[in-house]
Amino acid sequence: MDEVLREKIALFRYGLIAPLLNGQVDRVTYLAETSAKRHQVPVYGEKTYAAKTILEWLLFYRREGFDGLKPGTRSDRGKSRTLSAEMQDHVLALRKQYGGMPVTVFYDYLIGQGHLLPGQISYATLHRFLRLHGLLQGERAPEAERKRFAHDTVNRLWQTDASEGPRLKIDGKTVRTHLIAFIDDCSRLVPFAQFVLTEKFEGLRLVMKEALLRRGIPTLLYTDNGKIFRSDSLQFACASLGIQLLHTRHFDPRAKGKIERYFLTCKTRFYTLLEAEPATSLAELNERFWRWLEADYHRKPHAALDGKMPLEVYLSQIDQVRTVTDPKLLDTLFLRRATRTVKQDATFSLENRLYELPEAYAGRKIEIRFDEHRVHVYEEGKAVAEAKLVRFADNAYVKRNRPPLSFKELQAQGGDSDV
């Protein structure tokens, strides 16, 4: 199974465990309802899953992150993953001695103290083994029931959307701008917002990365059903960061009330300033907008906050904020993804451009991840090669190992051959 399919399956599994992960639902009720449903699963088709399977996925995610939800290949394939009878007795004796220890900690203890070799058995195998013998008492009790979103803490829920912005004259042409923004449900603080020229994923990626770096990681992200908000790239990034992506019901504009109210505030309090002195470039528009956002909106008493300022409320709970520990990680999480079959001349096309790879990739099906600056080949979740944009002037002088084309193939290519 290739990496793209493994990630799609992992994304499906994350969708099932996310309500449990974020404490949105009563665990018993949710597991009963979810295990009773039939689910349309990538690759596998329609399936049902037992409650214990869903709980195992939850444990895998907490232990290994998004990668823990991907189906094998396993590094220990072909080797025994069972314990000998003697080792089983030894593990049971240790478990009875350390019965109050959470199983996750107990697993690390067994490996750290040399009772088990790394990779000898998986965490899931140990968990099933202890459950079979009734020795899971070290597990934490389920969290308290939460029947609705908790909007009283910062970064619990962000809303995001895009709105039409003011028009600009660029190179003599009038163009429409679009404002992409995020707003924190609790404090009404705007983690980041920016005007862009198109409503494509590149703009959303730019704004969301900056929002995460400036104001931390939300638990829930709520948006509409627009194309960029349903993209695989956004879903993969959210799952990797532990963010549950939620979408409004179709034709339900009131569901995004806070972000819509913010856009109205921008129109009445910022756009009116542009009428007297229009911006002459996109860069100027954003600079003036950011100054207004920080000096006016964030520092103005808000009626919904009992007269407090959005920045004041946010800073009062700064200890609740989960920050991005590795900023470079965001560069890879938000890459767009696709699969391509490399031609025999080691080239492939992407968005009307031709790219080339080393000849070893000729004829292979590859996974690529890319942005507007670079295109990489990925294998098993890691970048292994960078594709180069073909420069036809240079390639006219490069010899390639390629089979001769038949007359039929030339006709299929419409005569556009570089041989």
From TrEMBL:
The name this protein goes by in its record: DDE-type integrase/transposase/recombinase
Identify the SUPFAM superfamilies for this entry.
Homeodomain-like, Ribonuclease H-like
**Domain Integrase catalytic spans what residues?**
138-318
One BP annotation, GO: DNA integration
Q: Name one Pfam family in it.
A: Mu-transpos_C_2
Record's PROSITE patterns?
Answer: INTEGRASE
Please give the Gene Ontology molecular function terms for this protein.
nucleic acid binding
Give the superkingdom in one word: Bacteria
Annotated PANTHER family:
INTEGRASE PROTEIN (PTHR35004:SF7), TRANSPOSASE RV3428C-RELATED (PTHR35004)
Q: Of which family is this protein a member?
A: Belongs to the transposase IS21/IS408/IS1162 family.
